[in-house]
Each structure stands twice: as structure tokens, then as C-alpha cells.
Design brief:
489 residues; alpha+beta; Glutamine Phosphoribosylpyrophosphate, subunit 1, domain 1; Rossmann fold; 2 domains; 7-stranded antiparallel β-sheet; 6-stranded antiparallel β-sheet; 25 strands; 26% helix
Length: 489
């Protein structure tokens, strides 16, 4: 984000949490830029406001960055031809506060004594302000408002000799959640933070190696999934192959459980689990915990579809598409007046009376954030003739802000933070409202003992308020809400 004093506001009618970005890197491919652009296409759901690619060839780096979607900016051979070289990294970014300025678009690039380095980052450093102010006091001059640039300056001030050692020393100083890829003339480097909050996977395409946020980015270029990068692992790829380094003190694994609920694409796999299958199991567990007599199970598209299928299969209630989504609505649509602003939800969703009229409807959605969209959808479904409307949510109530790379509203704007379930039910206007329990969610993702398992592997702070990674800037009074700090990516 570009203004540290602004809280993020989502686009109108957009009432979801948003991951901040997706990353992709490839080494030893004659079509590195084209493969990177395709990979970023597959990761577009992780960031829709800006995109960038940096390639390297013979000690020369080439960059193309732009605001907007991948397909609008990397859609011709003329653009791809400006990015020669056998290795490249790319980034898609999501930002909602202030202007999405080109200077904040990643990958960031800098020239060092050892040569050029480009870096792209997914996550949020929770001590970025403390580090930034210390670096500025030492004479560093920042060119962006992204916390990613903090890592660049820490690399620059390191006294280590090799770029890998410099990066490791830099990352020993940061706290927070991060997965990153970096490109030098000789290396493609990938790193996951010691808690493994954000995803990063390794893939292979013939003789080329790939690092990316999700397996769907491998599928689009017909690459092979090799494995997940482990928490706290540094992967260094060069002409000799892949080298793994584990330089950080072992920490508790805390992968973001919301990746299973919403962020990851359903055709991706994480830790050898199909996201689609997990979401169906979430729906089935939701049905076991919160059954209700009804005639039809209707997903709120698209993110509610797998859980709704699971709910329907577990209950035997028919599944049907009672809400149709318009996939051709851009995020830049301008609502011309307050007089028709209330119609905005119909830009994306419209009820299907043939399925709904006269029926007792169960609406299944992945989450409720502010509740504004849920309220409008329920009204729309009732107006289409539903005799009853019940809502089932495929995650626990989201009561707390995320400080680890997810764009969230101010905490008091989260409906579940200030309302109990009965109050939420009345506001949204449904006959019943239920959420999956925290233990039910854990069971659905494979933790048979629920959240209290002694080997708990997930971060669930947005549900529980338990922040296992130190919130250094917040505790030092540097910011009001870390997730909305300067340009986290």
C-alpha cells in the first residue's frame, strides 16, 4: 500500500479478505518470460492490481511492470521479447489503499557490488517499520513504500561476501510471514519464513526449475510438481541444480489455514492435499455440525461452490446453482450515482428463480467479513421467491485482523468482532446462520484431534486472536494495524 496512514477499503461490493500477491520464478528456460507470464496468469486470483516480470541475460536485467491484469499487459510477443534471458521472476500484487503506484510494483530491482538482484515477496514483515527507520537513520534512501524494500537494504548493508549469505543475514533480522523469490545473474533463490505461513512450491519443466506460490501455476505450463519448500528453507538454484539450506532456528509451523478456506485456487494442492477436496470436506463437516431441513443447497459463487457440494453430499439435499455469477465484471466499474448504488451486488451475482422460488434454501459461502455482500445476496434470494433462507459459512467467525500478509478491514469493521451469531443473523436477514467450528475446520484439513492437537500446524489468528509470530511494530506503537502498514506484499 502507498499510504501508511490509510486503512484499506475494498472495491465496492467486494466483501472478502485478499491475499497480497503471487510469485513465480524460473531458471534455465529459453522461454522464461513467457512461462513466467503464464504462471502469473494462473496466480491472478492472488493479486489483480499490478504485475511485473524481471528477466536476466548475460549480466543484464530486463524489467516490465504495469498496473492492471497480467492478460492486459503481457499479451503480446512484442512485450515478451523485451524480456530476454533464460531466467526470470514475476509478481502479481493486490492493493486497495491509496494509489497503486508503479514504484511499488514488484519485483524490486537493485544493483549491488556483486551485481544486480531482483526480489518478489508474498507476506508481511511485522517489524518492517522498526527496521525501516533504523536503516533510514543509517543513511538508506527508500524508493518505495513496500516492506520488501527493507530486505533489499538489509542485503545492501550486509558485510557477507556471497549474495546467498547476504540474504540469509538479512532475513535473520526480519520478523513476520514471507515467501520470496530472488534473481541474480547466477541464481534463482527461494525462501519461506521459519513458520511457513505463506506457500511456496518447487517444480520442474524439462531442464528448468520453477518456484511459485501454488501448483496451479505449474499446471498451466505443464510443469511437474516436485515438492513444497519447507518452512525456514532457503533453496538456491543454479547450473548445478537445486541446493537446500536451512539456516534458521526451527520454529512452530504456522501455515495460513485460510489458504484452504479461500485464498488458494481449488485446483491447487498444498502439502499433498487437494484444495478442492479439502473444501468439500469442510462443507461436509459443516453439514455434520449444522444440519437444517431444506430443499436445495446453493453456493455463493465462486468460492462457496466446493463447500456447498460437500454440504449437499453429506446431507443428501440437492445441490443447484441458485445464484449465477457474471464473470465479466471488472474491478474498475464506476457506479455513476448513489441512486443506483444499491444495485451493485447484481453486477456480480443474480438469483436464479427457477431454482429458488418456493424453496427452503441453504446458502453456503466461504466467509463473512463485513457482512454487506451477504445481506444483499440474502435480500436478492428472498426477492427471487425463497420461502426460507439459511446460511452456512465454511470457516469460523472472522473476528480479528491478519498481520501476516492478508488485507483486512479495521478490526471493528469485521461483523463477527462486534456481533454474536444471533445478531449477525438478524442483520443479514436469514432464518438461521451457522459457522463451522474451529475444531471442525481443523478436522477437515486433516487434524483429527482438532485445534488442540499437540502438533498444531496452522495459523488461525483471524479466528482466535492468537498471534504466534511477534508483532514487533504493533507492540512498539509504530502502527495501528500491521496488516495495513506500508505496502505489504
Amino acid at each position: 500500500m502507498d499510504n501508511p496512514d490509510q486503512y484499506s477499503e475494498p472495491p465496492k461490493n467486494d466483501d472478502k479478505f485478499h491475499d497480497e500477491c503471487g510469485i513465480f520464478g524460473i531458471y534455465n528456460s529459453t522461454d522464461s518470460a513467457a512461462h513466467t507470464a503464464l504462471g502469473l496468469h494462473a496466480l491472478q486470483h492472488r493479486g489483480q492490481e499490478a504485475v511485473g516480470i524481471v528477466s536476466a541475460e548475460d549480466n543484464t536485467f530486463h524489467t516490465h511492470k504495469a498496473l492492471g491484469l497480467v492478460g492486459d499487459n503481457f499479451n503480446s510477443q512484442d512485450v515478451i521479447s523485451t524480456l530476454p534471458g533464460s531466467k526470470a521472476i514475476g509478481h502479481v500484487r493486490y492493493s486497495t489503499s491509496g494509489d497503486t503506484m508503479l514504484r511499488n510494483v514488484q519485483p524490486l530491482f537493485a544493483e549491488f557490488k556483486f551485481g544486480g538482484l531482483a526480489i518478489a515477496h508474498n507476506g508481511n514483515l511485522t517489524n518492517a517499520q522498526i527496521l525501516r527507520r533504523s536503516l533510514i537513520d543509517q543513511g538508506s534512501i527508500f524508493q518505495s513504500t513496500s516492506d520488501t524494500e527493507t530486505i533489499v537494504h538489509l542485503i545492501a548493508t550486509s558485510r557477507k561476501v556471497s549474495v546467498v549469505d547476504r540474504m540469509i543475514e538479512a532475513l535473520h533480522q526480519v520478523v513476520g510471514a514471507y515467501s520470496l523469490v530472488a534473481l541474480t545473474n547466477d541464481y534463482l533463490i527461494g525462501v519461506r519464513d521459519p513458520n511457513g505461513v505463506r506457500p511456496l512450491v518447487l517444480g520442474r519443466l524439462d531442464d528448468a526449475w520453477i518456484l511459485t506460490s501454488e501448483t496451479c501455476a505449474l499446471d498451466i505450463i505443464n510443469a511437474e510438481y516436485v515438492r513444497d519448500i519447507e518452512p525456514g528453507e532457503v533453496v538456491v538454484i543454479d547450473d548445478s541444480g537445486v541446493k537446500s539450506i536451512k539456516p534458521f532456528q526451527q520454529a512452530l509451523p504456522r501455515f495460513c489455514i485460510f489458504e484452504y478456506v479461500y485464498f488458494a485456487r481449488p485446483d491447487s494442492t498444498i502439502a499433498n492435499q487437494s484444495i478442492y477436496d479439502v473444501r468439500k470436506e469442510i462443507g461436509a463437516e459443516l453439514a455434520r455440525e449444522n444440519p437444517v431441513e431444506a430443499d436445495v443447497v446453493v453456493p455463493v459463487p465462486d468460492s462457496g461452490v466446493p463447500s456447498a457440494i460437500g454440504y449437499a453430499q453429506a446431507t443428501g439435499i440437492p445441490f443447484d446453482l441458485g445464484i449465477i455469477r457474471n464473470h465479466y465484471v471488472g474491478r474498475t466499474f464506476i457506479e455513476p450515482s448513489d441512486r443506483i448504488r444499491h444495485l451493485g451486488v447484481r453486477l456480480k451475482h443474480n438469483a436464479n428463480p427457477a431454482v429458488i422460488k418456493g424453496k427452503r434454501v441453504i446458502l453456503v459461502d466461504d466467509s463473512i467479513v463485513r457482512g454487506t455482500t451477504s445481506t444483499k445476496i440474502v435480500t436478492m434470494v428472498r426477492n427471487a421467491g425463497a420461502s426460507e433462507v439459511h446460511m452456512r459459512i465454511a470457516c469460523p467467525p472472522t473476528m480479528h485482523a491478519c498481520f501476516y500478509g492478508i488485507d483486512t478491514p479495521k478490526e471493528d469493521e469485521l461483523m463477527a468482532h462486534s456481533h454474536d451469531i444471533e445478531a449477525m443473523r438478524k442483520i443479514i436477514g436469514v432464518d438461521s446462520l451457522e459457522f463451522i467450528s474451529i475444531d471442525g475446520l481443523y478436522k477437515a484439513v486433516g487434524e483429527a484431534q482438532g485445534r488442540n492437537s499437540e502438533n498444531r500446524r496452522y495459523c488461525d489468528a483471524c479466528f482466535t486472536g492468537e498471534y504466534d509470530i511477534e508483532l514487533s511494530d504493533l507492540n512498539a506503537g509504530q502502527v495501528a494495524q500491521l496488516s495495513l502498514l506500508i505496502g505489504q506484499d
